[in-house]
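Reviewer comment 2.1 asked that we show a complete input and output for one of the modelled complexes. We chose the beta-D-galactopyranose case, as it is the one discussed in the main text.
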Amino acid sequence: MYISNVFLLILIFASSAGVQAQLSVKKESFLPGKVWYDVDGDTINAHGGGFYYQDGIYYWYGEHKSRNSLAEVGVRVYSSKDLLNWKNEGVALAVSTDASSEITSGSVIERPKVIYNKKTRKYVLWFHLELKDRGYEAARTGVAVSDSPVGPFEYVKSYRPNAGVWPQNFSEHQKTKENATELRYEWWTGEWGKALEDGLYVRRDFEEGQMSRDMTVFVDDDNKAYHIHSSEENQTLHISLLTDDYLDFTDTWVRVQPGGQNEAPAVFKSGDYYYMVTSGLTGWDPNAARSFRAKSMLGPWESLGNPAKGKDADVTFNSQSTFILPVEGRKDTFIFMADRWNPKNHKDGRYVWLPLAIKNNSPEIKWIDEWNLNERRYVRQTESEK
Ligand code: GAL
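Response of the prediction step:
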């Protein structure tokens, strides 16, 4: 009896020491697709992430996921000095307990992205919002604001943007065309494809505002901010200039790749070009990424094909883009950040972070099992990379 009790005590001691050891282990490298623990040893829960850097600290905003994908908690925020070891800073934007709120528990809050407005000194959080019990049909963008990067963010409003405003790259003919027959075309037919390219849904949604699902925001060097979103039943991207305070849309917007079926947009700038990486439309399932470049955020955007190279490039290494981070203080060092969704258990969705290189003015992403940023030395390369 005595011996077994001592044994038990040793076991408890050993296992708690083991846990302690695991908790205090400092992460030295990125392990794409592996479970990622924060500095307290809890799994990082920040999907569809957005990143913001200030004063030596990176902030990671993401969707708190439970088993299902509905917003039960809100937008989480983590902080880190090295991009590897993340501290949980709590909930940046909490869902509301008020059933009449647009961000009530059970709504859908996706792809949160934060930008800082130097004039107003406010942190502005944009996100994709779907109203409770309406699936994905509301297709709105939402905005919240805070005085601190870790929140709490105060919800401002949500809507379908650009109501009553035509895109800059729309012809007079497109503005005045009749929709009556075209709206009856069967989806996915050739005539439907042509009609949508020619602006069928822009005209349909002109009064109410344009649909806005997968989105991101981007602040340019001149402090102008843009909202980039999947619109027109996810068939076409829209890029819109935000107001000076970043809290609203101006009347300046363009359609990008009409009928191109892009979502999950991630935008960055390098040298003379703006680049964008997107995915196709297969919901939570991965597909081949696409890439584009432009000399101006408002286009024209030129298609560059799949930036992923090597094995599993056709499914973007089983992931979908969410953000491309320029690493502070390192010239032309970008991290491609993506989600490996798990619709059977959303909180177990994984993060896939990979180095993104610019080759001949095109983005290139290759799989790597384990890597870090130090001297751009990769810790362990896959067979095909050696
Ligand atoms: C994906 C999208 C996700 C989420 C999902 C819902 O295509 O990128 O953010 O909206 O669809 O099915």
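The helical segments are 2-24, 172-176, 190-197, 200-204. We note this here for comparison with the apo prediction described in Section 3.2.
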